[in-house]
Amino acid sequence: MTGTCDFDRIFNPESVSIVGVSPDPGFGFGRGMFYSLVAMGFAGRIYPVNPKGGTIEGLKIYKTVDEIPEEVDFAIIAVAAQRVPEALEACRKKGAAGVEILSAGFSEMETPEGIALEKEIKQIARKGIRVIGPNCFGVYCPESGLTLVPGPDLSRERGPVAFLSQSGGMSIDFAHIGKWMGVKFSKVVSFGNGADLRECELLEYLRDDSDTGVIAMYIEGVENGRDFFAVLRSVAERKPVIVYKGGLSNSGGRAIASHTASMGGSGVIWRSALRQCNAVQVGDIMEMARTSLAFSLLPQRIYKGISVVGGGGALGVNACDIAEPLGLEIPRLKKEIEDRIISILPRPGSSAGNPIDVANPFVPARILKETLLLAAGDEKIDLQIMIQLLYHYKAFARGLGADSLRDVVPCNELADGVKEVVDITGKPVIMVFPNIKQEIESMDIEEVMREVRKAFLDRCIPVFDDIADALEAVSRVSNYCRKMR
Q1: Strand ranges (DSSP E) for 109-240?
Q2: Where does residue 205 rank: exposed (0-12), middle (13-18), buried (19+ CB within 10 A)?
Q3: Tens digit of pLDDT for each residue in 60-69?
Q4: Which class is 300-483 in CATH?
Q5: φ and ψ at 210, to 5 degrees?
């Protein structure tokens, strides 16, 4: 660490310099970042820099950073590795609080030249400018419009999840997954080699950041294990920290050395240390996304009793088998509640014992809403999961002669009903929408299901594709909260 950091000027800059913007058409990281910032609607002033000069989209391209007519808050450097130290020093003299260095060719190359260049970056940073990278994809902040490369189409909608990543590819992939899955971000930082700003200092900042309620991390290796776990423990006492540790296998550990020049350490030690810090451990990017979704949309409390509504008999049995090893229960409902539920469900074939099998995939939304309200009346129920087999509506639409699948799927009516149940009962509801029909002629099902997912997410109702994913996410929230008591 090199000292203090003005994070506000880094994440919410009023002016940005992009060093390495070619005036010539074609792809380059600097030119790509310029167009990405414009596409994201970044409202601050952008100063492109290239020794050739010229213009881009009507803006002057300055030949040097020195020519920029004002102090800049933040800079993006995308030039050849050999030119990075000179550009960094120029940005420091221009008053930049920080820079992100997209360029690669440093310690990750394991060459004397690359190691020496990264050492030079560290020396300049100590003079009073903070560095993200090198060998990174930069910063994504929906509030200000900063974005990763290449990220011109990321969401501008803010949310409580922050993500720290040593991998640039992981950062942009996670941001894209979040856009459709419903994970909304406060800040995303791809810090690459971490020559200056890296996991410990960024974690400490996010611990106190009022915009962040959940922190996710992709880590390959850390600079100082003892310091990292001390910081992680202190942060996890305030906010959930979801950790995806890359390189836990022997071969994975070898791979990360050539990725970000990090030493991964023993998998056994990492798993044990993360558990002691009460970090929430995940094994891949999709687990990380689903867990982030659950922590961001579910009230953080202990969950034990679950009601499962909808689907079919086998899906209910499967839910029971999955729940128990996760420390969750699907308890039998009170007799009087069962009787009231069975009286409103279609017959024959329905069952109200929990799991509640509604037998018919076309049960009206008002009946499903009433079923959820009744089940929530049992004090043993902490959370409800509704499974909807929307793919069956394709045959239903054909039988009715409907022009479109949208004409028969009760999307908004059901979403409004579920939201009302949550508001009335104070007990969360999770939706599960499996889709086994993925042949080409069923593309319309996929399209409608995406629209349905958005309708529920717009009402802050978590959506999962599989009951196992939903139950696993609930158990992670519950286990974290249990350890925090």
Answers
A1: 130-132, 138-140, 158-165, 185-190, 214-219
A2: buried
A3: 999 999 999 9
A4: alpha beta
A5: -70, -20
